[in-house]
Specification:
heterodimer; A: mainly alpha; MetI-like fold; 0% strand; globular; B: alpha/beta; Rossmann fold; four-stranded antiparallel beta sheet; binds adenosine-5'-triphosphate; binds magnesium ion
């Protein structure tokens, strides 16, 4: 019990440190940005026709008149109290904006995450089991091609193929145009999320598949597989009974660790598909110098990534018998 | 009676890449011939790294992919092909492996021994195999990391005798056991032989080999230099000077070690690899390839086997 408390305390401390670091970093990046908030958001022409007071008012609104340190500390003081401020672009509380965006992004992220995990594992196992033979070569070749293809390019390709030529799937957005909120069905949402999710997962698949293959090849070369063969177990049964079991733990770590990559990829993919999600909000906030929104999005996404890794750690303890019974990590 | 296993001129080598693309053939075992009779325990004696485990794996056709095997292996008079061995593994030909790393770390002992079967019969078989080596039924419910060294040995032993094997290949099965447990284990191998199986007992320990084996094959630098009966040792009927030196180094012998070290397999290109340490070298020992020849009811790879020089 005491150990569990210590573990939780350590993790919480790390999480705080991480969030602090990430927020400072994104704040500094925004400060260093060459974009002038007034010129980007109000426009050169409009600015020119304004009086001195009006410009000063606008500068105050965009925070351009405050020294950076003061500005950050002001934000931090609010954030500690749970108030992430108001988005300058959307004129709504940051938490509300993020809530909406996350709502639609979640479909996309979850579908992509599950798809890439399941597909990656299946492909990796197949390649490893057929090491050196044509299924292995095929899968590995495909993975290498995919992992050296930029996600946005793939997204455009999919759009052309499935939406423009074949017309099977909608071109963009997360819900049909001109339909009331209540009338949007789950099928609608899935249909809109499918193509972006596919793009996202395809790039995630190759990483998971290649790692899984490598691990399975290691496992199949191990002593206990040799004895399983010597005991007369069949090759297929060996892969399923011993291979899968020993690959599962590293695969799980990889899967939860890939949350970060999926979120990172979603920024670009949402842009291409005009999918109104968190990634798109991040881009808008960054380009529009919307400091509160950008910091808010950064906090939430780092929290998600951290949560993914934490979950992997915890699951490891539940699943690995050596950890469950208080043994050291292998 | 028909021998159970006949190994004829078995050689095992690895091809390795050294420095870029230069491929090199690395011999480990050269020209090994050995016959295993039913009811007999045959010891194979070799230092660490001499290819003992490889020999065990070669007999099961489980060599690493970068290795090559030459020679013939006959099982009950017929060539042991890849197809044939696949049907015999785990049933008629079994392996008692070298260590606990041969157990799947994430699977409980019971399911491992049952090989994926779940029926009552399989459970019963596991229970009785474990009981045979003094392990309680509860041991089936443990993960390998929860076994003590001695328990792990006995589990490995139990996994080999689930059916009644004709050939038992035991790869250094005793390290980690105290003297009492070790001698009980040796007794088990004698027992298996008494039930009509042939046992190949691999070890680096001459005393151990003499305690359990009827016959002993001695490795030197990748070659079998002598095949002797266990009784040849105390009775002074040894044929090769290296075997004699091994015996002399024991307390029962003269307790006297010979100087020098064993070369690697293939390191000595020509002649007898033992020549540099031989107490009585003769003409021609430095040239050509020596072959294993019958001598005085045993086998020896020496131009001047013991007795010749003495006379
Ligand atoms: N996959 C491999 N590739 C190259 N060389 C190998 C490979 N496996 C084993 N060897 C070499 O073959 C030799 C024999 O190995 P082996 O495991 O059979 O020794 P051993 O006699 O069983 O030793 P020990 O008593 O320590 O168990 C070693 O020198 C080792 O380096
Ligand atoms: Mg060995």
């Amino acid at each position: 019990m005491k150990q569990a408390l210590f573990f939780a305390g350590k993790k919480a401390f790390r999480a705080l440190l991480l969030l602090l670091g990430v927020s400072v970093a994104s704040f500094l990046l925004l400060c260093a940005s060459p974009l002038d908030p007034l010129r980007t958001n109000v426009g050169q022409a409009a600015l020119g026709s304004m009086s001195q007071e009006q410009v000063a008012q606008l500068e105050a609104y965009w925070g351009a008149d405050q020294p950076p340190v003061e500005r950050y500390l002001g934000w931090l003081a609010g954030a500690v109290r749970g108030d992430l401020g108001t988005s300058l672009l959307y004129r709504q509380p940051v938490l509300t904006v993020i809530g909406q965006r996350l709502g639609s992004s979640l479909w996309l992220l979850l579908t992509a995450w599950v798809l890439s995990g399941v597909l990656g594992l299946a492909l990796g196992i197949t390649a490893g089991a057929f090491r050196g033979r044509w299924p292995d070569k095929l899968i590995r070749g495909w993975c290498l091609v995919i992992s050296s293809t930029p996600a946005f390019w793939l997204a455009l390709l999919f759009l052309l193929l499935f939406s423009v030529w074949l017309g099977w799937l909608p071109i963009g957005l997360s819900v049909p145009i001109g339909v009331e909120e209540e009338a949007v069905t789950l099928a609608d949402r899935l249909q809109h999320a499918l193509l972006p999710a596919l793009t996202l997962s395809v790039t995630g698949v190759s990483n998971i598949a290649l790692h899984t293959r490598e691990k399975l090849v290691d496992v199949l070369g191990s002593d206990y597989i040799l004895l399983a063969r010597a005991r007369g177990e069949r090759e297929g049964a060996i892969v399923l009974r011993h291979g899968l079991r020993n690959v599962a733990l590293p695969a799980l770590t990889l899967q939860f660790g890939s949350v970060g990559e999926i979120i990172g990829g979603s920024v670009l993919v949402e842009q291409v598909f005009s999918y109104p999600g968190l990634g798109q909000a991040a881009v808008t906030a960054g380009l529009g110098s919307d400091l509160p929104l950008l910091l808010g999005v950064t906090l939430v996404t780092s929290g998600l990534v951290f949560g993914g890794n934490l979950l992997a750690d915890l699951l490891y303890g539940v699943i690995d018998p050596r950890m469950k019974r208080g043994e050291g990590r292998p | 009676m028909e021998p159970i296993l006949e190994i004829q001129h078995l050689s095992i080598s690895f091809h390795q890449y050294e420095k870029g693309f230069v491929q090199r053939e690395l011999p480990v075992i050269r020209d090994l011939s050995l016959t295993l009779e039913p009811g007999e325990v045959t010891g194979v004696l070799g230092v660490s790294g001499s290819g003992k485990s490889l020999l065990a794996h070669a007999l099961l056709d489980l060599l690493p992919y970068n290795s090559r095997r030459e020679g013939t292996i006959l099982f009950q008079g017929e060539p042991l092909t890849s197809q044939r061995i696949r049907k015999l593994r785990g049933k008629e030909i079994v392996l008692v492996p070298q260590g606990v790393t041969y157990l799947d770390p994430l699977m409980k002992v019971g399911p491992q021994l049952r090989k994926g079967r779940r029926d009552r019969g399989a459970r019963e078989k596991v229970r009785s195999a474990l009981a045979r080596y003094g392990l309680k039924e509860a041991a089936a419910d443990l993960y390998p990391f929860q076994l003590s060294g001695g328990m792990a040995r006995r589990v490995l032993m139990a996994s080999a005798v689930m059916d009644s094997p004709r050939l038992v290949i035991a790869d250094e099965p005793t390290p980690g056991l105290d003297a009492k447990a070790a001698s009980r284990l040796l007794g088990h191998f004698r027992e298996l032989a008494a039930e009509g199986a042939a046992v190949l007992f691999i070890t680096h320990d001459l005393e151990l080999a003499l305690a359990v084996a009827h016959r002993v094959a001695v490795f030197y630098a990748g070659e079998t230099v002598e095949i002797a009966r266990a009784s040849d040792f105390p009775e002074g009927r040894l044929r090769h000077p290296f075997t004699q030196a091994l015996w002399d180094a024991l307390p029962q012998g003269a307790f006297r070690a010979i100087p020098g070290a064993q070369p690697y397999s293939g390191e000595v290109k020509e002649g007898c690899p033992f020549l540099a340490r031989c107490p009585h070298p003769g003409n021609g020992c430095g040239q050509g390839e020596l072959s294993l020849v019958p001598w005085n009811e045993g086998m020896v790879r020496c131009l001047y086997p013991h007795g010749e020089v003495m006379a």
